[in-house]
Design a protein that fits this description.
elongated; 2 domains; 11 helices; about 65% helix; alpha+beta; five-stranded mixed sheet; Glutaredoxin
């Protein structure tokens, strides 16, 4: 590959060898000659721009990966060991998968059964759920309901609630959530009170704060080991990410 600026500098000097070239101290004539040489070179060699753009992209992707790795390291305990986040799969698994979820998100619903399959077939994944409602009032209401269920009834009730909310096709309203509580064998009155508590509000606020730090701007978003996975990824892609995380963990 030809580095862009040295190549342009060389062609400028060749095009006008009499110029005493100083990029910071050019006359109007020198600048005009240089600009013309650059234009002629790029017209004759458009692949230089393509190569340079590809290199810039790779550099930006590497820099972004470094930034994400540092942010993940700085917030490790909040991401992986937050007591307000439900833990499933194998609690002693060698790889932790964290999912930021919104129950009204179509891609979260699409990923739901594939994530379950990933965890169940692997058998060595620790799975952490982060309630991350970002799609409006119904999303917030559904998350409040799920968090309240966990606070009042524990992890197993939360898991069933999570599955029910993802499979529910009706709008999330006080009425539909009251019916859902009954279907799950839960008393809706204490749940309604807990849903509006400061404790539940604090959980959602903390998850949003963490999401902002991690630049989570959509759901689902996953953290797999030390890697961010933004958006839906089919099962085979998730399996590959998990395998790479295991290789890195060594």
């Amino acid at each position: 590959m030809r580095p862009l600026f040295p190549a342009l500098l060389s062609v400028a000097l060749l095009a006008s060898p009499a110029l005493a070239f100083d990029i910071n101290n050019m006359t109007d004539a020198e600048r005009a000659a240089f600009n013309q040489a650059v234009r002629d070179y790029l017209v004759a060699n458009p692949d230089v721009l393509v190569e340079s753009y590809a290199t810039l992209q790779r550099q930006e992707e590497a820099a972004q990966a470094d930034r994400e790795a540092q942010i993940l390291a700085d917030n490790h305990d909040t991401i992986f060991n937050d007591p307000n986040s439900w833990v499933g799969g194998n609690p002693q698994g060698d790889i932790t998968v964290v999912e930021f979820i919104d129950y009204r998100c179509g891609y979260c619903r699409k990923a739901w059964q594939e994530v379950d399959q990933l965890i169940n077939t692997d058998g060595n994944i620790r799975f952490v759920l982060k309630e991350f409602p970002i799609l409006g009032d119904q999303s917030v209401l559904a998350s409040r309901f799920a968090i309240a269920v966990r606070m009042l009834h524990g992890d197993e009730a939360y898991r069933k609630t999570h599955d029910a909310l993802l499979s529910m096709r009706a709008d999330a309203t006080p009425e539909t959530l009251t019916r859902l509580a009954g279907d799950l064998g839960l008393d809706p009155a204490p749940l309604a009170e807990k849903m509006n508590s400061d404790e539940v509000t604090a959980v959602i606020a903390a998850n949003h704060e963490l999401g902002n730090l991690l630049e989570v701007n959509g759901t689902p978003t996953f953290v797999v080991g030390g890697t961010m996975v933004r958006g839906y990824l089919p099962l085979d892609g998730m399996q590959q990410i998990v395998a790479e995380a295991r290789d890195k963990a060594g």
